[in-house]
Amino acid sequence: MADNKVELVCIACPVGCLMEVEQNGDEFIVTGNACKRGPEYAKAELTHPTRTLCTTVAIKNGFLNRVPVFTEDEIPKGLIFEAMDEINKIVVEAPVKVRQIVIENLLGTGINVVTTRSMSKKNS
Ligand code: SF4
Which CATH class is domain 54-115? Predict the structure, then answer.
């Protein structure tokens, strides 16, 4: 494979097409994609890769010890570890509602971290 070609698995849907992407200046020539979302994903991945971060945060007095959260939108892939450091500092207090903001404007991205479920207090 030439230096300006890479293989990339499209993660825009569960099909997971294996694509070959050739860069020619600003142009990306993509093959192996089953639909037009493949080239869009390939270009974004090779120029400014982003991810939605799904994880959990500690919760005090909840009936479980942790509550699942996610970033409301994709954040730059390069910020994932820094984002996890911020999220790991957080302890929320039960009860929490679904879509409750636990971190506003994560790392200045303008994107909030929110809960993906509600959680009541544990019975005492
Ligand atoms: S190219 Fe289209 S069909 Fe293939 S994985 Fe991406 S979104 Fe799915």
Answer: alpha beta
